[in-house]
Design goal:
Blueprint lengths: L3 H14 L4 H15 L4 E5 L2 E6 L2 E8 L3 E5 L5 H7 L9 E4 L6 H24 L1
Antiparallel strand pairs: 1-2, 2-3, 3-4, 4-5
Helix pairs in contact: 2-4
Length: about 130
């Protein structure tokens, strides 16, 4: 099982591997997520930066040549409506580098995902 130091090293390596502007934009997302939902952990899962809460996956973000993405789309109806302009495929928010990066939306999604992950972790510990 990987240690926290292993996870941190993997995250650092992943971020260093991203080309610009993906690197800068993922760092902006990362900062917005941690500011909005303090206490989230980080690891690399599915080849992208993954935020965790109480050992459960909360959300993912990845950087690519033409865009950055946040996965999945939250299950809250009000957030789903706000996310609609950036939904690409099933469960992906895609933010092209040439366009706006709505960090307030990303932060609100992070709060929702952190609560959802903590809820799932609490149910799991009771069952």
């Amino acid at each position: 099982m990987p240690t926290a130091a292993d996870a941190a090293a993997e995250v650092t390596a992943y971020l260093a591997s991203l080309p610009e502007p993906a690197h800068a934009r993922v760092e902006q997302i990362r900062s917005a997520v941690h500011e909005a939902a303090p206490g989230l952990g980080e690891k690399i899962s599915y080849g992208v930066l993954t935020f965790t809460a109480d050992g459960r996956t909360a959300m993912h973000t990845g950087g690519y040549a033409g865009h950055v993405s946040v996965y999945p789309v939250p299950g809250d109806p009000a957030l789903v409506e706000r996310c609609a302009p950036w939904v690409a495929g099933k469960g992906t928010l895609k933010f092209p580098h040439a366009g706006e990066l709505p960090l307030d939306l990303v932060a609100d999604c992070a709060v929702w995902f952190a609560g959802d992950a903590r809820s799932r972790a609490a149910r799991r510990s009771k069952g």
